[in-house]
Write a structure and sequence with these properties.
Blueprint lengths: L1 E6 L4 H12 L3 E7 L8 H4 L11 E2 L8 E4 L5 H8 L7 E4 L14 E2 L2 H9 L3 E3 L3 H15 L7 E7 L14 H4 L4 E2 L8 H11 L7 E7 L6 E8 L4 H11 L6 E4 L14 E8 L2 E8 L7 H11 L16
Parallel strand pairs: 1-2, 1-4, 2-3, 4-5, 5-7, 6-7, 8-10, 12-13
Antiparallel strand pairs: 8-11, 9-10, 11-14, 13-14
Helix pairs in contact: 1-9, 4-9, 5-7, 5-8
Length: about 325
């Protein structure tokens, strides 16, 4: 059995990881670390787990764990790893943004299986992609792989309230979020950097803009993204490129018909739909921000790192949101 630990166990992504790992046939959830909830039962915070686990939150770690998932706030993973040393055999999957950008200062592999599967299989350290980045990157990677992003890409995407995490702010209170809709961080969202990095990995000459408008929706979970750019070919040609690129993908599918969030919420899927309007190709992408956009993809990466089928443990639905 793979002995697994979770660091930062009280948040939404950690809750999803706990649910998946408790049901994973090849994993024993060894510990859940939390500085805010030490000594409390895991099910007192993740209340749908009553009767499923007697784990409590610890304020110490097992340094000999086979794999550790970091579910910490952005900027905190680097500090945690500098303050806590694990064994040489321990693999790390970081769900923050701390290691997503390539650097000589670290050896983390960007954990998007549809693009980096072979590198992930041999990696000891994985930087799990951001949720918006996952939905948008998967929408445009086949174009980049064929050198076809020649004009600006325009993206509009909406995320659910869980994308903001558990900490309350002015825009996460129910009375603000309910029956409301807003844009934020237009053209400067932090995930743009990793999206650009992915595109440039496949299309070396990529120099055009990715114009991204993120929006807050009044629902709990899911991301619905639309991306369009100029495309001179026919629709069937585009569909062929996408189907070829994702032919071996475990969870990403090119589909027909309108897409909506209930098709993917509580799954690790990304569904894509292609449409052609004049000289523009429109790609719609939908994912669950907590699963394919975070914890589900983290387990998918863990499976690859340990030589398992990447679908292992990811067939069950998630939480009660």
């Amino acid at each position: 059995m793979i002995e697994a630990g979770i660091i930062g166990g009280a948040g939404y992504t950690a809750g999803e990881l706990i649910r998946i790992l408790l049901r994973h046939p090849e994993v024993n959830l060894n510990f859940v670390y939390s500085t805010s909830q030490p000594g409390k039962s895991v099910s007192s915070i993740h209340q749908d787990l009553v009767g499923e686990t007697d784990l409590t939150f610890f304020n110490q770690v097992n340094k000999e764990a086979d794999v550790v998932f970091l579910c910490l706030g952005h900027g905190n993973s680097k500090k945690f790893l500098s303050d806590n040393q694990f064994s040489k055999k321990t693999k790390i999957v970081d769900l923050s943004s701390d290691f997503r950008m390539k650097s000589e200062e670290h050896s983390f592999v960007y954990g998007l299986p549809e693009m980096n599967k072979e590198e992930i299989k041999g990696a000891n350290f994985i930087a799990n992609p951001g949720c918006f980045a996952t939905a948008i990157t998967l929408a445009i990677l086949p174009l980049a792989d064929n050198g076809l992003i020649k004009e600006d890409v325009h993206v509009n995407a909406v995320t659910g309230a869980t994308g903001a995490g558990t900490s309350l702010s002015e825009t996460t209170h129910f009375t603000w979020r309910d029956n409301n809709f807003s844009a934020y961080k237009s053209f400067e969202h932090q995930h743009l950097q990793e999206i650009g990095q992915c595109v440039k990995q496949l299309q070396k000459d990529h120099k055009v803009n990715i114009n991204f408008i993120p929006n807050r929706g009044n629902f709990s979970r899911g991301i619905h993204a639309t991306a369009y750019t100029k495309f001179s070919g026919e629709l069937e040609e585009a569909k062929g490129l996408y189907q070829e690129f994702y032919k071996d993908a475990a969870f990403t599918f090119v589909t027909e018909g309108d897409l909506h969030l209930k098709q993917v919420v509580n799954t690790n899927k990304c569904l894509l739909r292609l449409q052609k309007f004049g000289d523009k190709l429109l790609v719609t992408s939908v994912i669950d921000n907590l699963l394919k956009g975070a914890s589900g993809q983290a387990v998918q990466n863990m499976n690859l790192m340990f030589g398992l089928d990447e679908k292992t443990g990811l067939g069950l639905k998630g939480s009660y949101f």
